[in-house]
Amino acid sequence: MSNEYSIPSTIDTVVLTTSLADYRKTLTDNVYNQNVLLSQLNSKAKRMVNGGNSIVELLVKAKQDDGGFYLGADVLNNTQGNDTTQCEFKWQNAYEPITITRDEERQNSGDMHKIIDLAATKTSLSEKAMGDRMDQALSIDVSEANNLYSIASIVATGTLGTIAGATQTFWQATNTTSGAFATQGLTDMTTATYTVASSATDDTPNMYITTKTIFQKFEQTRLPLERISNGDLSANAGFRNLTFKGIPVVYGNNIGSGLIYGLNLNYLSLVVDTATDMVTTPFISPSNQTVKVAYILWRGALTTNNRRRHFKLSSVS
Predict the structure, then answer these.
(1) pLDDT digit string (tens) for 105-138?
(2) Cis peptide leading into 286, omega within 30 of 0?
(3) Which residue range forms the structural domain that includes residue 110?
(4) pLDDT for 213 beyond 60
(5) Strand runs (DSSP E) across 133-206, as ranges?
(6) Residue 26 contacts by C-beta under 8 Å, 6 or more apart in sequence?
(7) What CATH number should be reported for the domain holding residue 290?
């Protein structure tokens, strides 16, 4: 029997949840594709993992050199060096609420289409906020608790995951202090590109990302030699890019000031829990508020299994 003192609802929660379920079909793409870094990680470096306590990356820390040449009955070496190790990364969680207040219920009561439109608008605002939060967390280190590892922390030389880069030199990215882009920017990009590559054509960066300010300086050095294009970014969602050595150069909204990154997406992974990839919960009503709330949830981490294949230029002006 219903409580005679309870507040009657003017919106059927089932209708809200059904509307959200219909919207969910486009939610994931909308969130991932609204920022260039998140879009590229999603399309080229995303890896789905079915839960677990943590994410473990197997690392090659040195080249193997245990074989050789032999003749006839020569004795062959039958031992293999300890050239691998593991690095553990913690799962992290992100969320964004979708909230409908009782005032909004009353303002949209009596018309099912108005209710559905309200839910869609609220969801759109939340997914935009989720995308912005994810892009910032993946671009720069922020002080918020339980934050993601960003490219700023990955493309560095300190501790990452469970390995201290300060003592394990194989676990260090190339970090170079640069200067005025007009005089040394292209030279420093070239030098860093070859530094992190295993050869002239292998394991070179396949994405350069910087700030809008530096991108404009780069544009001035390339035009009219290079045309602006977005054809080099697969699943590019319309992001504008130039090229350097045939590789896309883009700018992100949250990249730290004065920075240029050379990233090899073959050695970056946006690891996402299979059951928590921008999923939405049903709408519920908290006991102490006159609202209905659902949540967008994400669980994952940005990892790398080869820090040496990335570089950062800092103090670029």
Answers:
(1) 777 666 666 767 777 788 889 989 999 999 999 9
(2) no
(3) 13-59+85-314
(4) yes
(5) 159-160, 163-164, 174-177
(6) none
(7) 3.90.1690
